[in-house]
TrEMBL record:
Belongs to the TRAFAC class OBG-HflX-like GTPase superfamily. OBG GTPase family. YchF/OLA1 subfamily. This is Ribosome-binding ATPase YchF. The lineage of its organism: Bacteria, Pseudomonadati, Pseudomonadota, Alphaproteobacteria, Sphingomonadales. Its cofactor is Mg(2+). It comes from the Bacteria. ATP binds at residues 12-17. It holds the Pfam family MMR_HSR1. Keywords: ATP-binding, Magnesium, Metal-binding, Nucleotide-binding. Transmembrane segments: none annotated. One of its GO terms (molecular function) is ATP binding. GO terms for cellular component: cytoplasm.
């Protein structure tokens, strides 16, 4: 499957620090100088899900395997990037390849850490980054739209649709708004928009990187970002990347006390990961047995055979049916046996749309 969230932002705002905390490694060099990162770092991150641990406990599973989400640590971007400034176009290509954007904004005051524009202002920073992404989209559409329109006039129906919807996207961008504001009129337009790989059409999560003492409460700057996100229909999360990096290096048994001292019940990372998961419209289903309990990822709207295919292509090809138990039934009835006795094990066919939390067992024939 491989859904990817790209970590984007100005240089030296804490992107690599966040990435290292997420991946519990020091794979990405994080240091106090701009453009520390050049080549993108990719890491698979397990998605923490309390439901999975509960299912494993009930079934007495020996092994627990979380589903994963990929994060990519991308080079910092500066004003003029779309025209080749800083590391320029190269990293814009890295952003093009991701499915969602995790936009890190510096909300911590610390005179020792260089800010490329010499002042801490997350709203202005967000606009700088977004402007570069919009300029890059405008440039790419200005190249593509006229050719599509011409082909459309020549009788090519597909080109006509693409020219129309991408032309509207260009107008929206020229008004200073991101391409995600463009509404597709039908499924065909939606497909064209999705395939156009516009940077500003990707869903965004703002991550407010606050000071070490502010992780639980946020601060005045993170509140401004939250208001901006709300106005745009985007999501935002408050974390302190510095603290998260520290926690990720601690022994797991020491973490709960440390978090409690900071006034936190869970790590900021768990919230970032889950928000990323929601952003991508992903849902989880489970397979549960005495050997292992495992979480798997599908897109909302996936059918039972699609879900089977995530486990193995043979499961999809030879799909017969999916024995299905809702998560709540599995838990309240004490597992598969109890659910079956109570008539809560359903036999679902090829058309079934998988629901978040379903416990599935596939019957197949190859
Ligand atoms: N919440 C925070 N509070 C204080 N310092 C922080 C915080 N988050 C990160 N830093 C520090 O900021 C500096 C820059 O961090 P990092 O290298 O992660 O930035 P980056 O965004 O990856 O930069 P680049 O774009 O240059 O790769 C590091 O010295 C890091 O320790
Ligand atoms: Mg970096």
């Amino acid at each position: 499957m491989g859904f990817k969230c790209g970590i984007v932002g100005l240089p030296n705002v804490g992107k690599s620090t966040l990435f290292n905390a997420l991946t519990e490694t020091a794979a990405a060099a994080a240091a106090n100088f701009p453009f520390c990162t050049i080549e993108p770092n990719v890491g698979q991150v397990p998605v923490p899900d309390p439901r999975l641990y509960k299912l494993a406990e009930i079934a007495g599973s020996q092994k627990v395997i979380e589903t994963q989400l990929a994060f990519v640590d991308i080079a910092g971007l500066v004003r003029g990037a779309s025209k080749g400034e800083g590391l320029g176009n190269q990293f814009l290509g890295n952003i093009r390849e991701v499915d969602a954007i995790v936009h890190v904004l510096r909300c911590f005051e610390n005179g020792d850490i260089t800010h490329v524009d010499g002042r801490v202002d997350p709203i202005a920073d967000a606009e700088t980054v977004e402007t570069e992404l919009m300029l890059s989209d405008i440039e790419s559409l200005e190249r593509r739209v006229p050719a599509l329109v011409k082909k459309g006039q020549g009788g090519d129906k597909e080109a006509k649709v693409a020219g129309a919807v991408l032309g509207r996207a260009l107008d929206v961008l020229k008004e200073g708004k991101p391409a995600r504001m463009v509404e597709a009129k039908d499924e065909e337009e939606a497909r064209v928009l999705a395939q156009a790989q516009l940077l500003t059409a990707k869903p965004v999560l703002y991550v407010c990187n606050v000071g070490e003492g502010e992780a639980a409460t946020g601060n005045a700057l993170s509140e401004k970002v939250a208001a901006k996100a709300k106005a745009e229909g985007a999501a935002s999360v408050v974390i302190s990347a510095a603290i998260e990096a520290e926690i990720s290096q601690m022994d797991p048994t020491d973490r709960p006390d440390f978090l409690a001292d900071l006034g936190l019940t869970e790590t900021g990372l768990a919230r970032v990961i889950r928000a990323g998961y929601d952003l991508l419209h992903l849902i989880t289903f489970f397979t549960v047995g005495p050997k292992e309990a495992r979480a798997w990822t599908v897109e909302k709207g996936a059918t039972a055979p699609n879900a089977a295919g995530v486990i193995h292509t043979d499961f999809e090809k030879g799909f017969i049916r999916a024995e299905t138990i809702a998560y709540d039934d599995f838990v309240s009835l004490g597992g598969e046996h109890g659910a079956k006795e109570a008539g809560k094990l359903r036999l679902e066919g090829k058309e079934y749309l998988v629901k978040d939390g379903d416990v599935l067992h596939f019957r197949f024939n190859v």
